[in-house]
Design brief:
single chain, about 70% helix, D-Maltodextrin-Binding Protein, domain 2, about 375 residues, mainly alpha, about 5% strand, 2 domains, 4-stranded mixed sheet
Length: about 375
Amino acid sequence: MNNILTIIRKEFARFFRDKRLVLGTLILPGVLIFLLYTLMGSVFFDSEESYTVKVIHSSPEFTALFTPEEGEKSQIVFEEASAADADSIKEEIRAGNVDALVVLPENFGDILAGGFVPAPMAPNIEIWFDSAHTSSVSAYSLLSSVLDAVEDTLGSLYNINVTAGGNLSTAQEATANYYATLLPFLILTFLYSGCMGVAPESIAGEKERGTIATLLVTPIRRSQLVIGKIVSLSCISALSAISSFIGTFLSMPKLMGGGIGDMLASYSVGSYFALFGVMLSAVLLIVSLISILSALAKSVKEATTFSVPLMIVVMLVGLSSMMFTTSSLGACFIPVFNCVQVMAAIFSLKFSAVNFAVTMVANAVYIVLLVWILTKMFESERVVFGK
């Protein structure tokens, strides 16, 4: 046990004493991802809580179309205006003081009550906006989408979901399904990137520099050397992945136009612990696989080349969450794929304790097997010294 701890301390010292490596591997990825996704969210989703829209010939029937559901805030503030002010309001829109101008037919209420009107006789609704202002474009999109929906309802031969029917999924469930589609792939990408940043240098790098021979002549068993390296590399890789994951997790609500607090509250403490456990088992698997490839290589460059096919396979497995999810117990025995499916279940609020337990046990068996293979490789002089 002392020998294993010695190896772990050696690897930690090699990594954490290099400030540039710590900054580039642990800190910058999470910070940059958070800033990038937050910036993208600011561009895609306008920060205005409500839009100011002036209406000529306003009517209660028109404003009622935009009444928010219970518990939601109104996105549009309507202000009545006269036809004589139309030109001055347009100048206000250009200046960014008003988001849009709507000119309604004087009998808009009667039109709604009358139902379908043939196209040649249909009155025109004017919506004036300025595409140079993001908030004005957003206000126009909201106004036109609601009015188009009303027109389709009144003008069609039959109605859909007017008196009954609708979406059975809550807003929270819809958001959770979006996270379940995207986050497992991103997490697996971060895990693999973190492992690639440290594993080849630790094994293939020592072979290339010739320092591996010094380690092997010390009174330490090869199995202890392997376990020490895999544990230390897994810890460093996990820290790198967690940094990136935190940046992504905190920025995703902004990217979707929501709030961080709502996302954090969507999942229980147990879900976060389960997610951490799955990530840890995945990183141990990936580190073990890359370590085996690094042991076969004679240099860091060669180890990186060997790892490219593995990277492609891992990325394809990560993409599976975007195409389908399964709760089958048999899927829990497929390495890496089982981690993706369990993470997707956690994010979609469909966590299964049985699937999680089977996945963890199966991965533990695979990790032990990979450690045994790597130990046998270290016992071969032909592999270690590249003879």
